[in-house]
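> example.struct
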């Protein structure tokens, strides 16, 4: 499991890509491999008629229960991911979903916010990742442009092995 160090929290609040009012205004190429992270982002994306290849939600909006019923033609995976972490289970679920030929909805028990990083790292180069910027809109990330930055950030996380030892990754 990877744990977000306190020193990175401010940096991760800055958008990784361009900010748009909603997915409707974001320039998403037709037929794009889309990954959406967050309940509001995924709900609004589906409202535009676009179906993500992978959607990652936690049934919460800003730490409160979500009223959105997110449903579309997708296989469902469930995993645990406590706040401020990236679990092996989340990473493996994202990898499985991306490498399959199917649409997937990953429902996270915990928090899905940091799923953006493994999504960028594991996505095909031409993938588009959309995630919410609270009270501002949606951020559009082009995987190939942000992969190196995401990998560098992940290296700064603390890795907790099964025996409980902590190391910087």
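> example.seq
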């Amino acid at each position: 499991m990877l744990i977000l160090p306190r020193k990175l929290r401010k940096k991760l609040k800055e958008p990784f890509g361009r900010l748009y009012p909603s997915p409707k205004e974001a320039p998403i190429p037709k037929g794009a491999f889309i990954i959406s992270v967050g309940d509001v982002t995924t709900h609004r994306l589906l409202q535009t008629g676009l179906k993500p290849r992978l959607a990652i939600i936690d049934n919460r909006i800003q730490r409160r229960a979500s009223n959105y019923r997110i449903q579309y033609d997708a296989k469902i995976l469930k995993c645990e991911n406590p706040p401020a972490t990236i679990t092996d289970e989340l990473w493996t679920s994202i990898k499985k979903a991306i490498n399959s030929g199917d649409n997937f909805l990953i429902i996270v028990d915990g928090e899905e916010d940091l799923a953006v990083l493994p999504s960028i790292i594991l996505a095909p180069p031409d993938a588009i990742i959309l995630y919410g910027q609270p009270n501002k809109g949606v951020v559009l990330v082009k995987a190939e442009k942000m992969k190196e930055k995401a990998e560098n950030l992940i290296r700064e996380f603390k890795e907790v092995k099964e025996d409980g030892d902590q190391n910087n990754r």
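> remarks
Residues 2-9+19-62+69-158 form one domain.
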